[in-house]
Amino acid sequence: MRAIVLVGGFGTRLRPLTLHRPKQMLAVLDKPMIEWVAGWLGANGIDEVVLSLGYRPEAFTETYPDGRCAGVRLRYAVEPEPLDTAGAIRFAARAAGLHDAGEAFLVVNGDVITDLDIGELVALHRARRAEATIALTPVQDPSRYGVVPIGPDGRVEAFIEKPDRANAPSNWINAGTYVLEPSVVQRIADGRRVSIERETFPALVADCTLYALQSDAAWVDAGTAATYLSVQLDLARRTGWTAVRVEIDPSAVVDNSVLASGVVVGAGATVRGSVLGRGAVIGRAAIIEDSIIGEGAQIGAGCRLESLCVIGDAVHIEPGRHLRAELVPDPSS
Q1: How far apart are CA 219 and CA 189, in angstroms?
Q2: What strands lie across the sheet with 258-259, from one edge to the other?
Q3: Does residue 226 form part of some domain?
């Protein structure tokens, strides 16, 4: 089976980290996020991935010039303009010939890190002779997602995009992994933006051809600063990952944090619950708590950063500053 991975977005929820690169090229445990996605797909039998590109496509093509990522073959489909989720799928499917290949294909959101069993999803799709089958995952607050109530046989009864938390009929949400028949591509209008969540899936519901699999597999949407931070801390704990090629002063304290290669932590500094990008430098007696520091950023002596500060690449924070829940540089300015 082949897969389309959607990586064309601007990554606005992760700015300023994504001001100069796509979010799927941000590091997760010191390797690009897209390599986690491609590695999972390869482990589930996917042998070719079509990257649906839009924002800064050269970041992918230059990093993987031989057309391979985590052992999986890559093809590139670069949108001429933003086409939204369904539009991007249509464009990539036609570019790669998936629309007339006569077999189902997989679609994955490129900012989702999961260990979902794709074989189980495909088996349900085939058993129900579905036109499309989507994976569902449970969350505490479904208001940020598409909520999907289903019947006993797995047929989707409704697709409710981002409902109020109090009125959500379920906490099972769209997990961003789909098996689609080529006929779904024919349903997507050409030449304009089309949302698969707001247009395509509701049309499939109306025709009783959309099914879903509920799964408790590990899952995280790493597309926000909070989840990008938490997924790395969780993966580090679960995998026993440790930092390499870093310089930590003996008097510094580093606790429950991810330090990429080349990081320097100065004397008396404290780093807790944080992610430090490659080459970041933490000055003497600085305190970094629950924050993200971009690649090559320098945090001056005596600084205190807390409550999910996000510091962009190569930014220099002057000594002694106290920042709380701030983005530097401010993406809105």
Answers
A1: 31
A2: 258-259, 275-276, 292-293, 310-311, 327-328
A3: no
Interatomic CA distance for residues 57 and 54, integer angstroms: 6
Q: In terms of DSSP bridges, do strands 287-289 and 270-272 run parallel, antiparallel, or are they unpaired?
A: parallel
Tens-place pLDDT, residues 223-237: 899 999 999 999 999
What 3-state class would DSSP assign to 107? strand
Structural domains of the chain, count:
2
d(CA 306, CA 332): 20
Polymer length in residues for the chain: 333
- Dist CA 239 CA 214 (whole Å): 25
Tell me the β-bridge partners of 4.
50, 107
Regarding pTM above 0.85, the answer is yes
* Strand bridging mode 27-28 / 258-259: unpaired
118 and 248, same domain (yes or no): no
Q: Tell me, yes or no, whether 51 lies in a domain.
A: yes
What are the pLDDT digits (tens) for 9-45? Answer: 888 899 999 998 999 999 999 899 999 999 999 999 9
Active site residues: 162
DSSP state letters, 198-213: IIIHHHHHHTT-EEEE
| CA distances from residue 60 to 43, 52, 72, 227 in whole angstroms, order as listed | 21, 11, 14, 22
d(Cα 151, Cα 128) in Å, to the nearest integer? 13
| Token pair of 298 as six digits | 């320098």
Q: Quick one: 257 and 152 in the same domain? A: no
Residue 24 sits in a domain whose CATH number is: 3.90.550.10
On whether the CB atoms of residues 49 and 160 are closer than 8 A, the answer is no
Share of the chain above pLDDT 70, in %: 100
On whether residue 262 sits in a domain, the answer given is: yes
CB 259 within 8 A of CB 271: yes
Instruction: Please answer whether residues 107 and 6 qualify as being in contact, where contact means their C-beta atoms are separated by less than 8 angstroms.
Output: yes
